[in-house]
Amino acid sequence: MAYSGGISVVIPTYNGEKLLRDNLPSVIDALETWGGEYELIVVDDCSSDGSRAFLASLPQVQVLVNPSNMGFSRSCNAGMLVTRHRVCLCVNNDVTMTPGCIAPLLAHFDDPTVFAVTPNILVEREGRNQGIVMALYGKGFLKGSFALLGEASAERENLYAIGACVAYDMEKFRALGGFSEIYTPYLFEDVDISYRAWKRGWRSLYEPGATVFHYSSASIGRTRKRHKRRIYFRNRFLFHWINLTDPGFIARNVFHTALRLAVSFLWLDVAYYGAFIDALRRVPAVVSLRRSNASGIRLTDKDILHRTAKHDIQKY
After folding, report:
1. Spans of the chain below 50 pLDDT
2. Domains and CATH numbers, the chain
3. Which residues of 21-58 are buried (b: 16+ CB within 10 A; e: fewer)?
4. Among 126, 223, 257, 313, which residue's beta carbon has the most beta carbons within 10 A?
5. pTM strictly above 0.90
Protein backbone atom coordinates (compact mmCIF):
# COMPACT_ATOMS: atom_id res chain seq x y z
CA MET A 1 0.00 0.00 0.00
CA ALA A 2 1.44 3.39 -1.02
CA TYR A 3 2.07 6.10 1.52
CA SER A 4 -1.07 8.23 1.84
CA GLY A 5 -0.28 10.60 4.70
CA GLY A 6 0.74 14.24 4.77
CA ILE A 7 4.18 15.79 4.75
CA SER A 8 5.98 18.29 6.94
CA VAL A 9 8.64 20.57 5.48
CA VAL A 10 11.36 22.16 7.62
CA ILE A 11 13.66 24.88 6.28
CA PRO A 12 16.43 26.30 8.49
CA THR A 13 17.60 29.80 7.63
CA TYR A 14 20.04 32.43 8.84
CA ASN A 15 20.13 35.86 7.21
CA GLY A 16 18.70 34.20 4.12
CA GLU A 17 16.11 36.74 2.99
CA LYS A 18 17.30 36.77 -0.63
CA LEU A 19 17.56 32.98 -0.78
CA LEU A 20 14.08 32.61 0.71
CA ARG A 21 12.62 35.08 -1.78
CA ASP A 22 14.31 33.21 -4.63
CA ASN A 23 13.52 29.64 -3.55
CA LEU A 24 10.65 29.40 -1.07
CA PRO A 25 7.92 30.06 -3.71
CA SER A 26 9.11 26.92 -5.54
CA VAL A 27 8.68 24.85 -2.36
CA ILE A 28 5.14 26.14 -1.90
CA ASP A 29 4.38 25.49 -5.56
CA ALA A 30 5.67 21.90 -5.30
CA LEU A 31 3.49 21.27 -2.24
CA GLU A 32 0.41 22.76 -3.89
CA THR A 33 1.05 20.77 -7.07
CA TRP A 34 1.25 17.57 -5.04
CA GLY A 35 -2.10 18.45 -3.43
CA GLY A 36 -1.88 16.55 -0.14
CA GLU A 37 -1.94 17.79 3.45
CA TYR A 38 1.22 19.63 4.46
CA GLU A 39 2.78 21.98 6.96
CA LEU A 40 5.69 24.29 6.13
CA ILE A 41 7.95 25.35 8.99
CA VAL A 42 10.83 27.82 8.61
CA VAL A 43 13.27 27.95 11.53
CA ASP A 44 14.92 31.36 11.74
CA ASP A 45 18.32 31.16 13.45
CA CYS A 46 18.26 34.74 14.81
CA SER A 47 18.53 36.51 11.46
CA SER A 48 19.27 40.22 11.45
CA ASP A 49 18.06 40.86 7.88
CA GLY A 50 14.49 41.08 6.60
CA SER A 51 13.81 37.33 6.65
CA ARG A 52 11.07 37.43 9.28
CA ALA A 53 9.23 40.30 7.65
CA PHE A 54 9.21 38.42 4.36
CA LEU A 55 8.05 35.18 5.99
CA ALA A 56 5.24 37.01 7.77
CA SER A 57 3.79 37.84 4.35
CA LEU A 58 3.32 34.13 3.51
CA PRO A 59 0.24 32.58 5.13
CA GLN A 60 1.39 29.03 4.30
CA VAL A 61 4.49 29.37 6.51
CA GLN A 62 4.88 28.76 10.24
CA VAL A 63 7.94 30.54 11.64
CA LEU A 64 9.99 29.37 14.60
CA VAL A 65 12.63 31.78 15.91
CA ASN A 66 15.57 30.36 17.83
CA PRO A 67 16.38 32.09 21.15
CA SER A 68 20.03 32.33 20.03
CA ASN A 69 22.09 31.42 16.99
CA MET A 70 22.15 27.61 17.14
CA GLY A 71 23.51 26.33 13.83
CA PHE A 72 22.11 23.90 11.27
CA SER A 73 21.58 20.70 13.25
CA ARG A 74 19.96 22.39 16.24
CA SER A 75 17.71 24.49 14.01
CA CYS A 76 16.57 21.42 12.09
CA ASN A 77 15.98 19.50 15.31
CA ALA A 78 13.91 22.39 16.70
CA GLY A 79 11.68 22.37 13.62
CA MET A 80 11.39 18.60 13.40
CA LEU A 81 10.48 18.36 17.08
CA VAL A 82 7.11 20.01 16.37
CA THR A 83 6.26 18.37 13.03
CA ARG A 84 3.03 16.37 12.96
CA HIS A 85 3.34 14.21 9.84
CA ARG A 86 5.13 10.88 9.52
CA VAL A 87 7.40 12.14 6.71
CA CYS A 88 9.43 15.33 6.99
CA LEU A 89 11.22 16.99 4.09
CA CYS A 90 14.28 18.92 5.24
CA VAL A 91 15.21 21.59 2.67
CA ASN A 92 17.98 24.19 2.60
CA ASN A 93 16.99 27.77 1.83
CA ASP A 94 19.26 27.66 -1.24
CA VAL A 95 17.26 24.89 -2.94
CA THR A 96 14.76 25.39 -5.77
CA MET A 97 12.21 22.59 -6.12
CA THR A 98 10.50 21.44 -9.32
CA PRO A 99 6.70 21.13 -9.26
CA GLY A 100 6.46 17.35 -9.43
CA CYS A 101 9.13 16.31 -6.95
CA ILE A 102 7.04 15.52 -3.84
CA ALA A 103 5.04 12.45 -4.89
CA PRO A 104 8.03 10.34 -6.10
CA LEU A 105 9.80 10.86 -2.76
CA LEU A 106 6.76 9.90 -0.69
CA ALA A 107 6.14 6.74 -2.72
CA HIS A 108 9.00 4.97 -0.91
CA PHE A 109 7.67 5.35 2.61
CA ASP A 110 5.37 2.35 2.41
CA ASP A 111 8.57 0.31 2.80
CA PRO A 112 9.42 -0.16 6.51
CA THR A 113 13.15 -0.41 5.76
CA VAL A 114 13.36 3.09 4.26
CA PHE A 115 14.80 5.84 6.44
CA ALA A 116 15.51 8.63 3.95
CA VAL A 117 14.99 9.47 0.28
CA THR A 118 16.78 12.10 -1.79
CA PRO A 119 15.87 13.42 -5.26
CA ASN A 120 18.23 14.54 -7.97
CA ILE A 121 20.02 17.47 -6.29
CA LEU A 122 21.60 19.28 -9.21
CA VAL A 123 24.48 21.67 -8.51
CA GLU A 124 25.07 23.09 -11.93
CA ARG A 125 28.02 25.33 -11.08
CA GLU A 126 29.89 22.30 -9.70
CA GLY A 127 28.68 19.84 -12.34
CA ARG A 128 27.41 17.37 -9.74
CA ASN A 129 24.26 15.55 -8.70
CA GLN A 130 24.33 15.44 -4.90
CA GLY A 131 21.32 13.14 -4.84
CA ILE A 132 23.50 10.16 -5.85
CA VAL A 133 26.02 9.47 -3.07
CA MET A 134 28.42 6.59 -3.70
CA ALA A 135 30.63 5.18 -0.95
CA LEU A 136 34.41 5.38 -1.27
CA TYR A 137 36.97 4.21 1.24
CA GLY A 138 40.63 5.06 1.46
CA LYS A 139 43.37 5.86 3.96
CA GLY A 140 41.11 4.85 6.84
CA PHE A 141 38.22 7.17 5.99
CA LEU A 142 34.79 6.74 4.40
CA LYS A 143 33.76 9.34 1.85
CA GLY A 144 30.67 10.07 -0.19
CA SER A 145 31.26 10.68 -3.90
CA PHE A 146 28.60 12.56 -5.86
CA ALA A 147 27.61 11.62 -9.39
CA LEU A 148 28.42 13.99 -12.23
CA LEU A 149 25.63 15.78 -14.08
CA GLY A 150 26.32 13.58 -17.10
CA GLU A 151 25.72 10.40 -15.09
CA ALA A 152 22.46 8.65 -14.26
CA SER A 153 21.18 5.83 -12.10
CA ALA A 154 18.00 3.96 -11.37
CA GLU A 155 16.77 3.93 -7.78
CA ARG A 156 19.77 3.02 -5.61
CA GLU A 157 21.01 2.81 -2.04
CA ASN A 158 23.10 5.83 -1.01
CA LEU A 159 25.86 6.04 1.58
CA TYR A 160 23.94 8.96 3.08
CA ALA A 161 21.12 11.37 2.35
CA ILE A 162 22.46 14.88 1.90
CA GLY A 163 20.69 17.42 4.10
CA ALA A 164 20.14 19.94 1.28
CA CYS A 165 16.90 18.16 0.36
CA VAL A 166 15.90 14.89 2.01
CA ALA A 167 12.67 13.23 3.12
CA TYR A 168 12.94 11.40 6.46
CA ASP A 169 10.76 8.84 8.18
CA MET A 170 10.20 10.79 11.38
CA GLU A 171 9.58 7.76 13.57
CA LYS A 172 13.05 6.48 12.72
CA PHE A 173 14.57 9.98 12.84
CA ARG A 174 13.32 10.45 16.40
CA ALA A 175 14.36 6.92 17.40
CA LEU A 176 17.91 7.94 16.41
CA GLY A 177 17.67 11.10 18.54
CA GLY A 178 17.63 13.47 15.56
CA PHE A 179 20.74 15.17 14.21
CA SER A 180 23.65 14.80 16.60
CA GLU A 181 24.50 18.27 17.87
CA ILE A 182 28.15 17.38 18.45
CA TYR A 183 28.70 18.54 14.85
CA THR A 184 27.39 22.08 15.49
CA PRO A 185 27.46 24.52 13.72
CA TYR A 186 27.34 22.44 10.48
CA LEU A 187 28.82 19.59 8.40
CA PHE A 188 28.48 15.80 8.83
CA GLU A 189 25.19 15.80 10.77
CA ASP A 190 23.37 14.43 7.71
CA VAL A 191 26.13 11.89 7.05
CA ASP A 192 26.07 10.77 10.67
CA ILE A 193 22.34 10.18 11.02
CA SER A 194 22.14 8.29 7.73
CA TYR A 195 25.05 6.09 8.77
CA ARG A 196 23.53 5.39 12.18
CA ALA A 197 20.31 4.45 10.39
CA TRP A 198 22.24 2.11 8.08
CA LYS A 199 23.75 0.38 11.11
CA ARG A 200 20.18 -0.54 12.12
CA GLY A 201 19.34 -1.71 8.62
CA TRP A 202 17.37 1.42 7.68
CA ARG A 203 18.12 2.47 4.12
CA SER A 204 18.87 5.79 2.40
CA LEU A 205 17.59 5.81 -1.18
CA TYR A 206 18.02 7.91 -4.30
CA GLU A 207 14.84 8.61 -6.29
CA PRO A 208 15.55 9.52 -9.95
CA GLY A 209 12.00 10.72 -10.64
CA ALA A 210 12.28 13.86 -8.48
CA THR A 211 14.54 16.87 -9.06
CA VAL A 212 15.68 20.00 -7.20
CA PHE A 213 18.42 22.55 -7.88
CA HIS A 214 20.95 23.47 -5.19
CA TYR A 215 23.17 26.53 -4.96
CA SER A 216 25.66 24.59 -2.84
CA SER A 217 26.99 26.20 0.37
CA ALA A 218 25.33 29.54 -0.30
CA SER A 219 24.34 29.82 3.35
CA ILE A 220 27.87 29.38 4.70
CA GLY A 221 29.83 30.76 1.76
CA ARG A 222 30.83 33.93 3.61
CA THR A 223 32.58 32.01 6.38
CA ARG A 224 36.38 32.11 6.30
CA LYS A 225 37.85 29.25 4.27
CA ARG A 226 40.31 28.19 6.98
CA HIS A 227 37.58 28.14 9.61
CA LYS A 228 35.34 25.97 7.42
CA ARG A 229 38.24 23.61 6.76
CA ARG A 230 38.90 23.25 10.48
CA ILE A 231 35.22 22.45 11.13
CA TYR A 232 35.25 19.92 8.28
CA PHE A 233 38.23 17.98 9.60
CA ARG A 234 37.06 18.17 13.21
CA ASN A 235 33.69 16.70 12.27
CA ARG A 236 35.27 14.09 10.01
CA PHE A 237 37.33 12.87 12.96
CA LEU A 238 34.24 12.82 15.18
CA PHE A 239 32.11 10.95 12.63
CA HIS A 240 34.61 8.11 12.32
CA TRP A 241 35.34 7.91 16.04
CA ILE A 242 31.62 7.70 16.79
CA ASN A 243 30.50 5.34 14.03
CA LEU A 244 33.20 2.90 12.90
CA THR A 245 32.72 -0.53 14.46
CA ASP A 246 34.65 -3.01 12.30
CA PRO A 247 38.05 -3.62 13.98
CA GLY A 248 39.93 -3.43 10.68
CA PHE A 249 38.31 -0.12 9.74
CA ILE A 250 39.11 1.34 13.16
CA ALA A 251 42.75 0.21 12.97
CA ARG A 252 43.26 1.73 9.52
CA ASN A 253 41.63 4.98 10.64
CA VAL A 254 43.95 5.23 13.65
CA PHE A 255 47.02 4.43 11.56
CA HIS A 256 46.35 6.94 8.79
CA THR A 257 45.33 9.65 11.27
CA ALA A 258 48.59 9.21 13.16
CA LEU A 259 50.57 9.21 9.91
CA ARG A 260 49.04 12.46 8.71
CA LEU A 261 49.51 14.12 12.08
CA ALA A 262 53.17 13.10 11.91
CA VAL A 263 53.79 14.77 8.54
CA SER A 264 51.31 17.68 8.32
CA PHE A 265 53.84 20.05 9.89
CA LEU A 266 55.80 19.84 6.63
CA TRP A 267 53.19 22.03 4.90
CA LEU A 268 52.24 23.96 8.04
CA ASP A 269 48.72 22.52 8.14
CA VAL A 270 47.64 24.42 11.25
CA ALA A 271 43.93 23.89 10.57
CA TYR A 272 44.36 20.10 10.57
CA TYR A 273 46.10 20.09 13.96
CA GLY A 274 43.51 22.51 15.33
CA ALA A 275 40.71 20.25 14.11
CA PHE A 276 42.27 17.23 15.81
CA ILE A 277 42.63 19.10 19.11
CA ASP A 278 39.01 20.32 18.87
CA ALA A 279 37.88 16.72 18.29
CA LEU A 280 39.92 15.44 21.25
CA ARG A 281 38.08 17.90 23.51
CA ARG A 282 34.86 16.10 22.60
CA VAL A 283 36.08 12.58 23.44
CA PRO A 284 33.75 12.19 26.48
CA ALA A 285 30.77 12.96 24.22
CA VAL A 286 32.15 10.56 21.59
CA VAL A 287 32.32 7.75 24.17
CA SER A 288 28.74 8.44 25.24
CA LEU A 289 27.49 8.44 21.64
CA ARG A 290 29.31 5.20 20.81
CA ARG A 291 27.64 3.53 23.78
CA SER A 292 24.19 4.76 22.78
CA ASN A 293 24.73 3.56 19.19
CA ALA A 294 25.90 0.10 20.23
CA SER A 295 22.43 -1.40 20.61
CA GLY A 296 20.54 -2.48 17.53
CA ILE A 297 23.48 -2.73 15.12
CA ARG A 298 22.60 -5.05 12.23
CA LEU A 299 25.09 -4.06 9.50
CA THR A 300 28.86 -3.76 9.58
CA ASP A 301 30.92 -0.98 8.04
CA LYS A 302 31.92 -3.43 5.31
CA ASP A 303 28.27 -4.28 4.60
CA ILE A 304 27.31 -0.62 4.21
CA LEU A 305 30.32 0.17 2.02
CA HIS A 306 29.53 -2.76 -0.27
CA ARG A 307 25.84 -1.86 -0.66
CA THR A 308 26.41 1.84 -1.37
CA ALA A 309 29.57 1.73 -3.50
CA LYS A 310 29.62 2.90 -7.11
CA HIS A 311 27.58 0.56 -9.25
CA ASP A 312 24.98 0.84 -12.01
CA ILE A 313 26.00 4.43 -12.76
CA GLN A 314 25.63 5.20 -16.46
CA LYS A 315 26.72 8.12 -18.62
CA TYR A 316 24.23 9.79 -20.92
Report:
1. 221-222
2. 1-316 (3.90.550.10)
3. eebbebbbebbeebeeebbbbbbbbebeeebeebbeee
4. 257
5. yes
